[in-house]
Structures
1.
Amino acid sequence: MAKRALVSVSDKTGLIDFVQQLVSKGIEIISTGGTKKAIEAAGLPVLSISEITNFPEILDGRVKTLHPAVHGGLLAVRGKKEHMDAISELGIQPIDFVIVNLYPFKETISKPDVAYDEAVENIDIGGPSMLRSAAKNHRSVTVVCDPADYQTVAASLDADNEVPFELKQKLAAKVFRHTAAYDALIADYFTKQVGEEFPEKLTLTYEKKQSLRYGENPHQMAAFYSEPLKNEATIAAAKQLHGKELSYNNIRDADAALGIVKEFTEPAAVAVKHMNPCGIGLGANINEAYDKAYETDPVSIFGGIVALNREVDAELAEKLHSIFLEIIIAPSYTDEAIQVLENKKKNLRLLQVKFTEDKQDFVQYTSVRGGMLVQDLDTKGYEDVKEDVKIVTERKPTDAEMESLKFAWTIVKHVKSNAIALVNNGRMVGMGGGQTNRVGAAKIALEEAGDKTKGAVLSSDAFFPMSDTVEEAAKAGITAIIQPGGSVRDQESIDMCNKYNIAMVFTGMRHFKH
Ligand SMILES: NC(=O)c1ncn([C@@H]2O[C@H](COP(=O)(O)O)[C@@H](O)[C@H]2O)c1NC=O
């Protein structure tokens, strides 16, 4: 008996070519409304699904293939006599191939302001049902959900129109991933509609963006997956204009650098090494901002990642070109700047990232052995706490100190805890991060800053458990401090500030970054 293929696709890419090949091998084609029309228009023989089901397509296409004549033909186990007798008695014929791709739900909800009913109408029911039936019975049925597989399948057909089991199994695995991802997007859409924050099941779906040469270290395998609903203002959506492929560590560092530079609306430059900022500068223009970021730590910036929130021109490009950098991130580059940066630097990665607003519902996932932690991204800043800010010392910060304190508070959030950042005149002059005690982080920051601590301000991501950090800061010439407060021994730190005429501000908000 001739083999039969059921074809029902929303995306008609490559359809006619593939059907043509199946027809030429003597395979009978059965199809639904729009797909059938396309096949007929190409002059190829095709049966209507209604001829198989003896039922019209109804409810605007909501019910067309949902019928025992279809699912019996797909699910009957070919080697099982009872199954074959059962379908035969009912006049159901086996279906050997399913070529289905689904209603474009993702594309529909990606459209701005899509109507709820339009989204709902784009939830495919019959398609996933056929895909799942066929994938379950993959020993007998070949199931194709991706036009990219058409040629592989066509080329694999033997004289009896059989497909090797290994390929059928691979295609079935792909189908279950595909329908799971499709349902995950639908689930996410509905979960957001009803405003549930942390539902009882976490059904994430990501799409492979690229294989990576290796992970954090060369002996670790890795890949990069991106969110299906694109956020343009991310590293995942960045356009690479030049340079070597991004590595695993590059992607994480670039994301960290972008996260910091996007805190600022004024021209800002950020240098990052190993996820921590090693240079941050603000300026009247981006050139000045970069000079300040560079001066933070001219040693650490070597081999680092630089993120800028303004266009890179030729003058800035010359400066960036003069040192070894792994990546530059900016919203745009002039043509001259690209010429300068590409010259003799084939590896230097140039990324163009949109600096539009982030989605407000950015969530952070951190895997632990046996589970996943989920939290809101720490997007809060000085603006969110300004009503609650308290000046706790006898001396109030001057206006200039207050500006520096706000800046210092903004950046310390991005340093690994325990974190201390020092700021002087629109630039970070030192930082200590990832230390297991706070005074240790402060000592590192103060030492790094050297005599740039004179007149600088200090920020701390969490409260001081004792007054030793204030004492170290005072000795180095720090004039003002910003920290959350909240220690049972806050008074000791306040007294120490008063002793050295330091102004101290409590924000009431902690910014741990573990
Ligand atoms: N309802 C059904 O029985 C049904 N059967 C197949 N579909 C989908 O209909 C689409 C193809 O429709 P058409 O051939 O009319 O262009 C495919 O994406 C397929 O997955 C269905 N549509 C939605 O559920």
2.
Amino acid sequence: MNGYYPVMLQLRGERCVIIGGGRIAERKVQGLLEAGADDVLLISPQITLPLQKLVADGSLQWQCRTYQPSDAEGARLLFAATDDIELNRHIADDGRRAGAWVNTVDESAGRGFLNPAVVRRGDLLIAVSATGASPALSIRLKRELKQQFGEEYKYSVEQLRRLRDYMKTAVLEQSEREALLSLAADEVPLQSGAEIEITAWVERLRAKRLED
Ligand SMILES: C[C@@]1(CC(=O)O)c2cc3[nH]c(cc4nc(cc5[nH]c(cc(n2)[C@H]1CCC(=O)O)[C@@](C)(CC(=O)O)[C@@H]5CCC(=O)O)C(CC(=O)O)=C4CCC(=O)O)c(CCC(=O)O)c3CC(=O)O
Ligand SMILES: NC(=O)C1=CN([C@@H]2O[C@H](COP(=O)(O)OP(=O)(O)OC[C@H]3O[C@@H](n4cnc5c(N)ncnc54)[C@H](O)[C@@H]3O)[C@@H](O)[C@H]2O)C=CC1
């Protein structure tokens, strides 16, 4: 079995290298930038118009040339995103030898990582993967999740974070903190509006806990 282990990576300061500059490379670059990656290098003799715009505004570094094996060196994440399966396989091998995590956009995948379909609502990040069996299913589930977890979750998760930060110092007993945070999570999605007054919220949750 080829298993998969989900993780949330922080990419700030980490070098991400994409080989190829077509529609698929464009989607990979967009995903990286949405995740806060700030050292993204793309190598390709041709790139799409949206990619050119990202180069122009400084979000993306571009070397206008074909791939060479040393490109894998120093990459944390490496994307083999050309339209040449053989070449993608070579890029993947070079990348693994250089110690990078490799994403291959075609069936030459082999060992490495896959990109899930992603819904972002502020700090809430929902990722779905059919691990290669069906990108179409991942896209459908993403559409459904977007409807189920609307924009109001951004506000809700912000408030939950504030509450939790506050409780770390204000509610010292761990079992109580856990119970209150669990009750607060049950209240989500919150009606978005002004910032919730935290001490009143904690008192309300305490009262609710006693009721239960
Ligand atoms: C294994 C994986 C590796 C990887 O790329 O990470 C992979 C591989 C392949 N995709 C192919 C096809 C398509 N992929 C998409 C779309 C997405 N593909 C994504 C991920 C993944 N795709 C990984 C597995 C994820 C999983 O299974 O859940 C998404 C979720 C994330 C992303 O790419 O960032 C993104 C949606 C983003 C969004 O909308 O949110 C579309 C639709 C479209 O482009 O609009 C099509 C056309 C329809 C179809 O074929 O189903 C092909 C055949 C290529 C060919 O025919 O030549 C291969 C190669 C193969 O399977 O052999
Ligand atoms: N993973 C996924 O979600 C999907 C993957 N695919 C696969 O992705 C591949 C790429 O698709 P597109 O981006 O639409 O293709 P495309 O033809 O638009 O782009 C290919 C890019 O690779 C570059 N390239 C070619 N040779 C190169 C080299 N030696 N060095 C550096 N760059 C080079 C080209 O200049 C071009 O920018 C497809 O062949 C297909 O197998 C297709 C659909 C979805």
3.
Amino acid sequence: MSARTVDDLRLDDAPLALASGLLDGRTAIVSGGGSGIGKAAAWVLARLGARVAICGRNPERLEAVQSAFDARGWPILAHPCDIRDEAGIERLLDAVAARFGLPDILINNAGGQFAQGASQIAPKGWRAVIETNLTGCWLMMQAVARRWIDGGRGGVIVNVTAANGRGMPGIAHSAAARAGVENVTRTAAVEWAPHGIRINCLAPGLVDSGGLSVYPEAARAAFARANPQRATGDPWDIAQIIAFLASDTTRFLTGTTITADGGGALWGDLWTIERPVYFSDSFQKAEIHVA
Ligand SMILES: CCC/C=C/C(=O)SCCNC(=O)CCNC(=O)[C@H](O)C(C)(C)COP(=O)([O-])OP(=O)([O-])OC[C@H]1O[C@@H](n2cnc3c(N)ncnc32)[C@H](O)[C@@H]1OP(=O)([O-])[O-]
Ligand SMILES: NC(=O)C1=CN([C@@H]2O[C@H](COP(=O)(O)OP(=O)(O)OC[C@H]3O[C@@H](n4cnc5c(N)ncnc54)[C@H](OP(=O)(O)O)[C@@H]3O)[C@@H](O)[C@H]2O)C=CC1
């Protein structure tokens, strides 16, 4: 039996908002299910009764979640896959089909970016982030939807984006990609409605997952003050909303985005890179020099 971490114990004991058994008999794929929000989502879905398949690039993270699931007697498939690789996605879906049959739910959670000022982002870096967050998410959506359409049945997709309504200073590439996902979600929600496919986005604000460690210390120190709640979210908060969107509870909801950001879209000042002097409290307008 694998060691139980404090983290896993919390995932076991944190209260569920939805009725246990709600997802009995369902199969869910969670991309990026080896860490952070995706791992919490895998736990919530399993505790609600779903069989879970997780993917990501790093096999060790997936294996750790697999061991924890095995220890609890929960069905799981852990399959390494880069969501930018169409052939890899087909292999993932074949593996899910062989183990569990056609999935019912896709949680498109894998993603991320690096923080850099917009004027400095290299073309390769821009492409890496767009390929991951827009194209990768799209390839997963389309591959699963095709199998549902070919199989004559519907399903549910939840795309995890990021709260981008006011732009995202320091991660322009990711903001553009997430806005693209939210738009293609609206389009596909219409096109695929006749097939019984529902698609929604969940746009988190700052969530205290391990993922935030990639940001500069000065930026991280301000994250918890960047919304009216003056707090970061927790992966469990986000995972519960993911499960809500994946369940029949939301059967009349499609093509929309739920933002879970502590009100950050309304108030707060978020910088993922060092805050430019222009936006500091001490900045005086006279400091602007026009040539
Ligand atoms: C408000 C915040 C809200 C959001 C929070 C979260 O999402 S938390 C979740 C957070 N979790 C995550 O973000 C996890 C997932 N994120 C990732 O895996 C990476 O950030 C990825 C999306 C770039 C993909 O990775 P990959 O393996 O495909 O890419 P690669 O490593 O091979 O780089 C390709 C190119 O990108 C460029 N470049 C890359 N890094 C930097 C940098 N620091 N600096 C500058 N540039 C950088 C560079 O051009 C590089 O090419 P080079 O110069 O090397 O020839
Ligand atoms: N935490 C936050 O404040 C916020 C997070 N988000 C988004 O929520 C999602 C989950 O992030 P979070 O849990 O916080 O951070 P993590 O860094 O823990 O999660 C990102 C996950 O995505 C996987 N991943 C990244 N790139 C790929 C790829 N090309 N193919 C397959 N898997 C990939 C990673 O696994 P591996 O490295 O093994 O591939 C990892 O499991 C991400 O899309 C993130 O951008 C959005 C807004 C705020």
